From TrEMBL:
Domain of life: Eukaryota
Domain FLYWCH-type intervals: 12-65
Single Gene Ontology MF annotation: zinc ion binding
Higher taxonomy: Eukaryota, Metazoa, Ecdysozoa, Arthropoda, Hexapoda
UniProt keywords, alphabetically: Metal-binding, Zinc, Zinc-finger
Protein name: FLYWCH-type domain-containing protein
Classification via Gene3D superfamilies: 2.20.25.240
Length: 95
């Protein structure tokens, strides 16, 4: 777990999250946690997810596509967070 910079975008309708050039759109706000899912979740059935709680972000990023194009007129706000990466690859070995 290390401090890393991710980006928030307020967007016109829905806020977005930018992590490693991948975009996430808000899925559900909960009391202490916000769930995000990949913007390509419908288009390519991408199952990548992210969760934000306070200054901690956990990302489950097994994307099945390339980087989505970033709208040039969106304003990205950098934020330093604790980033937890969870790769849900089937090939991963369990210890
Ligand atoms: Zn994706």
């Amino acid at each position: 777990m290390a401090d890393e910079t991710i980006y928030f975008c307020e967007g016109r309708k829905y806020p977005k999250l930018l992590i490693d050039n991948y975009q996430f759109q808000i899925h559900r706000r909960e009391e202490k946690k916000t769930r995000w899912r990949c913007v390509n979740c419908n288009k390519t059935k991408c199952t990548a997810r992210a969760f934000t709680f306070g200054k901690t972000v956990s990302v489950h990023d097994t994307h099945n596509h390339g980087f989505p194009k970033i709208d040039s007129n969106i304003v990205l706000v950098p934020q330093l967070v604790k980033l937890i990466r969870k790769h849900n690859t089937v090939q991963e070995h369990q210890h």
